[in-house]
Design brief:
321 residues; alpha+beta; Uridine Diphospho-n-acetylenolpyruvylglucosamine Reductase, domain 1; 3 domains; 5-stranded antiparallel beta sheet; 21 strands; binds flavin-adenine dinucleotide
Length: 321
C-alpha cells in the first residue's frame, strides 16, 4: 500500500484547489464505533458539494475512494484502506429543512437522531425509529436502515448523489433498489442529501414513540459499548440472535472481541480488539451457526480494507471451501 503522503504528493497540484482537509495516514479507529482497524492512506473531508465534486474530478479513477458516515456499521481491517476515505463534514452536509412539497430535506451527514428530532419539532410522524439509530443519513440511505418495523425506504422519496466523476444524480426511491438492509443503487455513488416524507402527527404522540424507542434500546442493546449494532442480518424465518444463541455463541470471546452477553447479535470491542479479532469472531459465529442449524448468516456490518499480512480471515473459517 502506498504511504499516505506519497499518494498526496503524487496528486500534487490536483488537490491544491480543494477547500476541504486532506489528512495522510488517518486512523480509522478514531472514526469507527468499534474503535478498531488500521489507517487509510488519506482522509478527505469536503466542505460542501462543490468541493466534493472537485475532489472526485481531481482524483484519477484508478485510485479507490470509499465514503464513510459516522462509522456505526463499519469493521475496518488492520491492514488499512487503500486510497482515500471521504467523510462528509456536518457543516457542509448537515443541513436540515422543510421543502415546499412538505417533506424534509436532510444533508447526508445529518445524524438520524437529528432527523427524528426535527420531525418532532415540525409535527411530522413516522420518523421516531431514527431516534434509536446512531448513524448518519448517508449510511441510512445505503443500508436501508430501519427499526421498530419501519425502514428508510418507506420514508425517502428522493436522493441526491455524486458519481465518481463528480456529476450530480437524482434518484427516486425505486432507483435505490431497496431490500432488507440493502440498496442496489449504482456502486460508487456518494449520497449528499435526501428528501423524506411523513404524515402530520400530534407532537405528544411522536415524543412518546421516540421515548419508547430509547427506553427499549437501553434495556435490550449494549448501546454504550464499542459496537457496530447488529452484526448479521436476520435469516429468513428466524432471528440472527436466536441462531447465535442456539449455537452457543452468546458471550463468545476472541482476543478483545466478544458477542455481547446482553444481545448476542451485537459484537463488542471489550477494549483491545483488533479488526482481526472482530472479523475472526464473526466468522467463527457464522461457522458454528452453519454447523448447528445449516443457516448461512450474512454480515450486516460492512467490512472495509485489507487484512494485515498473515492475518487473513476466511469466510466461515473456510468451512465451506
Ligand atoms: C448501537 C447501535 C445500534 C444500531 N441500531 C441499528 C438499527 O436499529 N437499525 C439499523 O438499520 N442499523 C442500526 N445500527 C447500524 C448503523 O447505525 C446503521 O447501519 C447506519 O445507517 C450506518 O450509518 P453510518 O453513518 O454510521 O454509516 P457507516 O457505518 O459509516 O457506513 C455504512 C455504509 O454506508 C456507506 N455510506 C456512508 N455514508 C455514505 C454516503 N454519504 N454515500 C454513500 N454511501 C455512504 C458506507 O460506505 C458503508 O458502506 C446500529 C449501530 C449501532 C452501533
Amino acid at each position: 500500500m502506498m504511504r499516505g503522503q506519497d499518494l498526496i504528493d503524487k496528486l500534487g497540484d490536483k488537490l491544491a484547489a480543494l477547500r476541504g482537509r486532506v489528512t495522510p495516514n488517518a486512523e480509522m479507529d478514531k472514526i469507527t464505533w468499534f474503535r478498531a482497524g488500521g489507517l487509510v492512506e488519506a482522509l478527505f473531508q469536503p466542505v460542501d458539494e462543490e468541493d466534493l465534486a472537485a475532489f472526485l474530478r481531481a482524483v484519477p479513477e484508478e485510485i479507490p475512494i470509499t465514503v464513510v458516515g459516522v462509522g456505526s456499521n463499519l469493521l475496518v481491517r488492520d491492514g488499512g484502506i487503500p486510497g482515500f476515505v471521504v467523510r462528509l463534514s456536518a457543516k457542509g452536509f448537515g443541513q436540515i429543512e422543510r421543502v415546499p412539497s412538505g417533506g424534509i430535506k436532510a444533508g447526508a451527514a445529518t445524524p438520524d437522531k437529528r432527523l427524528a428530532a426535527f420531525a418532532l419539532e415540525e409535527g411530522i410522524g413516522g420518523f421516531h425509529f431514527y431516534h434509536g439509530i446512531p448513524g448518519s443519513i448517508g449510511g441510512a440511505l445505503i443500508m436501508n436502515a430501519g427499526a421498530n418495523g419501519v425502514e428508510t425506504r418507506e420514508r425517502v422519496v428522493e436522493v441526491t448523489a455524486l458519481d465518481r466523476k463528480g456529476n450530480v444524480h437524482t434518484l427516486l426511491t425505486d432507483d435505490m433498489g431497496y431490500s432488507y438492509r440493502h440498496s442496489s443503487a449504482p456502486a460508487g455513488l456518494i449520497f449528499t442529501s435526501a428528501i423524506f416524507e411523513g404524515v402530520p402527527e400530534d407532537k405528544a404522540a411522536i415524543k412518546a414513540a421516540m421515548d419508547a424507542v430509547q427506553n427499549h434500546r437501553e434495556t435490550v442493546q449494549p448501546i454504550r459499548e464499542k459496537t457496530g449494532g447488529s452484526t448479521f442480518k436476520n435469516p429468513e424465518g428466524s432471528s440472527a440472535w436466536k441462531e447465535i444463541d442456539k449455537a452457543g455463541c452468546r458471550g463468545l470471546m476472541i482476543g478483545g472481541a466478544q458477542m455481547s452477553p446482553m444481545h448476542c447479535n451485537f459484537m463488542i470491542n471489550t477494549g483491545t480488539a483488533t479488526g482481526y479479532d472482530l472479523e475472526y469472531l464473526g466468522e467463527t459465529v457464522r461457522a458454528r451457526v452453519l454447523e448447528n442449524s445449516g443457516i448461512r448468516l450474512h454480515w450486516e456490518i460492512k467490512r472495509l480494507g485489507n487484512f494485515r499480512p498473515g492475518h487473513a480471515v476466511q469466510e466461515f473459517l473456510g468451512q465451506l471451501l
